[in-house]
Amino acid sequence: MRYDVVVAGAGHNGLVAAAYLARAGRRVLVLERQDHVGGLAISAQAFPGVDARLSRYSYLVSLLPTKIVKDLGLRVELRRRRYASYTPLGESGLLVDNGDEARTAASFRAVTGGDADYAAWRDFYAMTARVAQAVAPTMLEPLRAAAGLRKAVGDPEAWRDLFERPIGEVVDERFADDTVRGVVLTDALIGTFADPATDLLANRCFLYHVIGDGTGEWNVPVGGMGAVSGALEAAAREAGAEIRTGAEIVGVDPSGEVTFRDAAGEHAVSGERVLVNLPPAVLDTLMGREAAAPEGAQLKVNMVLSRLPRLKDARVEAREAFSGTFHINEGRDQLARAYEQAARGTIPELPPAEVYCHSLTDPSILGPELRGRAETMTLFGLHMPARLFTKNPEKGRSEALAATLASINSVLAEPLEDCLLAAPDGTPCIEVKTPADLEHDAGLPGGHIFHRDLSWPYGEAGRWGVETEHERILLCGAGAVRGGGVSGIPGHNAAMAVLG
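Request: output the structure for the sequence above.
Response:
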């Protein structure tokens, strides 16, 4: 059977591409290995008998452009978080309150002993905001060369500090306090194993975390991440795209032929174009080429709590601290020490991590009997590269969880374990996902959540950043140029490349 476009993989980017193309009148088939759409942008009841739908893998939305939401008529609601972050430090902590500038300034003063770092904070993020406003619109256009994007940014100092100098060097120069430096640097390390003092890969990661939709804000999807994928699926189906789940792709040919296997056996379909929403390493394997696996670097811990843990800081309420990003042992020196230990192949002694509680902003993910009586908590651990879990995944997972719980407990007034909700069978509501788990469960080589190392948001002028060496085969997933994160950007760009 022949289609105008065959989309390999029904993750959110594949659904974006399918929706645009079907709306343009193309005959589109989407093939998905799993029994559901959405890839890693899904919600699930992780604990039997506990009515809480968790965003098990990806969990916040920043990069998804408003243009895509409007173009496709997506029925999604994204809520802004009042509190950006809280970083505990001894009996005090650093609170960044989006709704109270004076309180934020006072918190900086209490932690750093003066006003200089808060002034530097405001200047630095004013600069990133200007860069975001300049770069975000270009993400949905044909690529610009580096010189063209630099001209669009229009700020030589910002270009030098964000694109050319290691972000760790810039942060050390601009800020004096170790805690403040660390809070800034975490955006350069999410899902990325790099030394920000020397490696510009950290700069690329930082850029993707601060330019989202021109604001860089990380918003909460009402209903969980599954609501975003559900809206995209509805848009694609309503436009006429055909979506088949339980269809595992086993081969892709440069001619446009795609071979897949389902419960009825093996089949082949052809497309004028094939849009691949799979990691490039997987595409290499499907085309019979040698594949070099990337390395993911994160620990994801999903929890349901019976109550929020108590803080050591009496001036901040737990609901304030945990509704934003709660930083755990993420000072600049702590990050550097954890990187050095992980690079040597050992679980960091005090793993840096951050948590937030989705249900504090959006209680709809909790069933009626849990609302007001439980909260969800999501932890994302840094500097947990796949190499730590390859020899013995179960032992690595156990050691990483124990070290991470010890890390968070070191900054709380009570053990987090005392706050975990028990499922009906008596087991605590906590699950762990390592890079090895993501490779096994989701087919991500090396457990890399961005499919491969993030790219700069520029390239060969006039191209879309989705092209491969084969004219009929395009990337439409996170591994494309300007991919990574829950954005829909590579899905949009692949569709535009097809539509010409």
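The chain has a mean pLDDT of 97.
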